[in-house]
Design a protein that fits this description.
Methyltransferase, Cobalt-precorrin-4 Transmethylase, Domain 2; Cobalt-precorrin-4 Transmethylase, domain 1; 2 domains; globular
Length: 261
Amino acid sequence: MNGSNRPDAQPTVWIVGAGPGAPDLLTLRAMRLIEQAEVLVWTDSLVNPQIAALAPAGCERIRTSTLTLEEVMAMVVERALAGRRVVRLHDGDPCLYGALAEQICRLADAGLAVEVVPGLSAYQAAASALQQELTIPGLVQTIVLGRAGGRTGVPESESLARLAALRASLCLYLSARHVEEVQAELLRHYPPDTPVAIGYRVSWPDQWLQVVPLTAMAEVSRERALIRTTLYVVSPALAASREARSRLYSASHNHLFRGGV
């Protein structure tokens, strides 16, 4: 990790994942960078204010919920070129639906180096809160992260129909506004009683997390008026028998560090 923007070094901007919400789910690297920030540019509509509060008292805090990407990048570039330690704080993991590529390109064009720090994603926090494994031996071994098409659309090769056809553990972000269409498409591929975990503001103090049958996915979402910060985890793993066992730890399984029976 580059310790500071030294005069003789290429200025660096840190793009940091804040995780799903709870401050104690930050990585140590993320926490240290926030605590050393001179400028904190944070997604205040999605990031827990308690996380932004970890920045030092003299840190300039810039909220981005009302700004365009161009406005955000202009402020980041200006302050980083002035030699200040700029931390761009994203909810979850910056590599997921975070406009990361656009930001890195703009920073590179300005002659700035970038360090990206990963963050825990909501699907991981949801599975942990449910005490559920999403990859059950003999049942499902694939996790798909996706979203409904919505206004911005998705490539045809990644349509919800194609994703659902895998019948994997399907984690859907940014899809609550289209939940009726999502449920209808999922029912073409998954059995009606497939469990769906609906998570709202997972790991926040007001977290709401419930497992419902696929047929109730839309109804429950509308009853709770869920529109934003909602995650759906559609998976047969959520109903798996507790007797399911991984071969990796079986006495009959031989591998490099343990002989088998």
